[in-house]
Amino acid sequence: MGVKKRWVRLGAVALAGLLIVAAALQISGLLPKFGTSTVDRSQPAVLQAVRDLSQYHAAVGDYQVVVDIEKDVAWVPASIAGERTLFVAAGSVDAYIDFGPLVENSLTVSEDRRTVEVRLPEPKLAKPNLDNGRSYVFGQERGLIDRLGALVSVQDQRPFYLAAEKRIGEAAQHSGLLERAKANTRAMLTQMLRALGFQVVFPAEPAT
């Protein structure tokens, strides 16, 4: 009985050693990763609602950002645990004017019906729209423990996308996109109202 237990123990140690060697070879690239197959059983999309839009999208900005996120484990060398990821993200942001909340005095026609004064709402920025086809992990450094964990689990990339959306949204705020949207909306309305025979006036904005 003792001999049998010894052989079982030796077999378990040998198997563990083989798994460690295989993992090391796979991490180093000498052994291909275990093959996986994907079957898409998703159901067709179902229309739930249709909404009318009152927004005039007057400008769009295209942006690219490199997100650099590092996760450290306290008191543990980076070669053992932790990771650093460089994520390249590309996306766009729309600037729009919402004509929905316009009030009655937004358009004021002169008595001779030759001039119209237009008061526009302030432009807004839509949520950044990331281009998945041009967003990807550019580089990644991992400690040994994280590399072994990556063999059995898929990394959650949502933090990279959320960080990229934040950076792109901040860039849009300071890129002059809102000013461009306002100018384009004024030009559009001016052309349309002039075609109807009106001269267009935009009231002066208060100094900031």
How does the SSE layout of this entry go?
Layout (H helix, E strand, L loop, with lengths): L1 H27 L26 E17 L11 E16 L8 E3 L5 E4 L5 E2 L3 E2 L5 E7 L1 H7 L7 H16 L3 H19 L3 E3 L7
Parallel strand pairs: 4-8
Antiparallel strand pairs: 1-2, 2-5, 2-6, 2-7, 3-4
Give a structural overview.
With 208 residues, this protein is of the alpha+beta class. The protein is 33% helix and 26% strand. The strands form two sheets. Strands 1, 2, 5, 6 and 7 form a five-stranded antiparallel beta sheet that branches. Strand 3 (107-109) and strand 4 (115-118) form a beta hairpin. It is elongated. The relative contact order is 0.17. The model has no long low-confidence stretch (mean pLDDT 77).
Features:
single chain; 208 residues; alpha+beta; five-stranded antiparallel β-sheet; 8 strands
Largest sheet: 5 strands, antiparallel
Principal-axes geometry comes out as elongated
- Report mean pLDDT, rounded to a whole number: 77
| Helix-and-strand structural type | alpha+beta
Distance between the termini: 90 Å
Which sequence of SSEs, written as H and E, runs from N to C?
A: HEEEEEEEHHHE
Query: How many strand units?
Result: 8
Gyration radius (Cα, Å) is 30 Å
Strand content: 25-35%
State the share of residues found in helices, binned by percent: 25-40%
List the total number of helices. 4
Contiguous runs where pLDDT drops below 50 for at least 5 residues: none
